[in-house]
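Q: Give me the 3D complex with flavin mononucleotide.
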Amino acid sequence: MAQVLILYASDYGNTEKMANAVTDGVNSVEGVTAVLKKAEEVSADDMTTSDGVIFGSPVHMGAVDWRVKKFIDTVCSGLWMKNLMNGRVAGVFTSGGGFGGAGGGTEVAMLSMLNNIAELGMLIVPLPKNTPNYKKGGLHWGPYGRSADEDMEHVGVSEEALSVARQHGANIARAAIAVAGKTIFTA
Ligand SMILES: Cc1cc2nc3c(=O)[nH]c(=O)nc-3n(C[C@H](O)[C@H](O)[C@H](O)COP(=O)(O)O)c2cc1C
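A: Here is the predicted complex, encoded as structure tokens.
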């Protein structure tokens, strides 16, 4: 049985909705257990017992949330020192509310997390452009939910974005099965 950890931060529930949809997608794949946690609750053991990890963040001031970054700078840095995450799979998702199609800073937040994921020696799972509803909630880096409309009125993340999040979770679950118990990188 492979395990996929989904970690996130959320103040107003939008990123949490995305995290729940990603988790549903992971659980839709036979042979995978999903573990859903807030970034502040994730331990080093949670990471090293997982074959895949999915990082989710709201966009804050054009970048990644501080709790997700704190987790990366504390828990993940220790794992990086010991090369403990090499060869596991990983992906990202975000929710933002700002101006522009994907919100202001969504891509920066995703790339920031993906940079850390690459640093950890993990295998990045992207989001293919033929994913259903991609144009409503996908970038090639991962799914995004937009919680505000073009006038910055709160509308909540759309069903289309949640469906993209479910698909991403299922994709990463299948990738986790593919790498579970395998040595990808040799020293
Ligand atoms: C302090 C703060 C800064 C934010 N900065 C941005 C931003 O730069 N770009 C953006 O698209 N949304 C920004 N937002 C909006 C949130 O990213 C958006 O509402 C998101 O869906 C909130 O997620 P949550 O409901 O999980 O907390 C900001 C929200 C807060 C509270």
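A quick observation: The radius of gyration is 15 Å.
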